[in-house]
Amino acid sequence: MNLGPIAAFLSSCTWAVGSATFSRLSRTYSPFSINFTRALISLPCFLLVFVLISGGVGPAIDSYRALPVERYGWFTLSIFCSYALGDVFFLWSTQRLGITTSLAIASSYPIITALFHVITGGTVGLLQCMGLACAVGGVIGVILTNHQNSQEKRFGRPAVGVLFAMMTAGFWALNAWSVMRGGDGLDAAQANSIRMTVALVMSSFFSLLIEKRFPRPVPASELKKSGWIFWLESFGGSYLYVYGLSHSSVVVGTTLSSLAPVVVVPVAVLMRIEKFSIKRTAAVALTVLGIFLLNQGVGP
User: Fold this and answer.
1) For the chain, how many structural domains are there in total?
2) What does the CA dihedral 271, 274, 276, 277 come to, rounded to 10 degrees?
3) Domain encompassing residue 256
C-alpha cells in the first residue's frame, strides 16, 4: 500500500492547525522567532529518530557523509522557500487578509508546480483548463467573501497581503519541488534533520538582516499552551510532508498537501478566529476542486 498520498493529505491537516496558531502568535511575536522555535523543537526529534533507525550515532554520521552535495542544496533551497522566507510572507499576509484568505491564495501553489511539470514534458488537457478556471474563481470568491466574515483585526493594506500570499504560493511551489528532488529515496527523518538545521541558521540570518535582531524562541509561557501544536506541525507535519511528497507523484503529492484551506475553515471557526460562512466555504471548496481538476489534466 502506498502511504505517500495519505501522508501528504495528513500534512495539510497538521498545517491547518499549525498555521491558525502561528497566525495568531504572529500578532505578538516575530514570524522569524516563530519559525526558529518550530525548527528548535523538531530538530532534536528528527535527530533522535534517525539515530535510532540507523542503529547508532556512527552509522547516522556515515549516512550524512554519504549524501551528495546536491541533496544538501535541494534542502537548503527548500528551507529558503519555507521557514526562512516563504512562511514569513505567509504570516505577514494573514495579518492583512485573515488566515482563510491567505491560505486559499498561498495554497494554490500546485498550479505553479503543475506548470513546472508541463514545462518538463507533461501534457495539457481540458481538465487542466477547467481546473485553472475553478481555482482562480474560487480564490476571487474567498477574497470577496472573507472581508465580511473575519473577526481578525487587520493591519496594513489588503493589496499588500494579496501580494505576500501570491509570493508565498511561488515559494511553496519551489519548496515542494525541492523536497521531492532532495528527499527522493531518503528517510524523512534524515531529510528533515538537515532541513531543520538549515532552518535555524537561515531564520537567524534573515531575522538579523531584516529585523536587525537575533530571533528569540517563543516564550515558555506561550509554549505551555501551544507547545504541542508546535511539535505536531514542525515534527509530525514535516515528517508527513517530506514522506508524502517523496512517495507520491508530483501532481498527487502537491495537491493533497495543499488542502489546508478546506481543513482550516472549521479549525478557524472553532478557534473563533473566523465566523462561519457558507459562501466562503463554497469558494474555498471551489479553489481546491480547481486544483484537483488541474492536476488531473496533467499527464504523467
Assistant:
1) 1
2) -160
3) 4-296
